[in-house]
Amino acid sequence: xxxxxxxxxxxxxxxxxxxxxxxxxxxxxxPMTGGDAMYAAGCPDPCSFSVKSHDKGEVAGLLKQHASGHxxxxxxxxxxxxxxxxxxxxxxAGCPDPCSFSVxxxxxAEAASLLKSHAKMHHNKxxxxxxxxxxxxxxxxxxx
Length: 144
Hints:
Helix 1 packs across helix 2. The protein has a 4-stranded antiparallel β-sheet. Strands 1-2-3 form a 3-stranded antiparallel β-sheet, with no helix packed on it. It has 2 domains: 2-87, no CATH class; 91-138. The chain is 31% helix and 25% strand. It has 4 helices and 10 strands.
């Protein structure tokens, strides 16, 4: 059964209070090129659990573990895999603590541009296009 909660698509699992949310920007479950595929699943508020990975099976497994451990609910492999949705890869850029500025966008150039603007406005520092681009990474990718 499908329904909507706060304009996000939600798939209700059985008659429990657990729901799985397809994140905004969700895409059809079809292969993407270059290893860009990202998969996500989670619960809506107030639980707000979410998991995202390049590995669809990992997302399904962690969703099953969360449903069991946090909600006392048994979720089958087929149900868990059906709840996992492909999402658009995101780019992340930001400042270290104590500033903690961060930007998450689907456009790498936009992330670099916003980081440059932040550095100029908030830190009075000029950052080159090259420096800003070097500070942008894919969401889920380890920092260099």
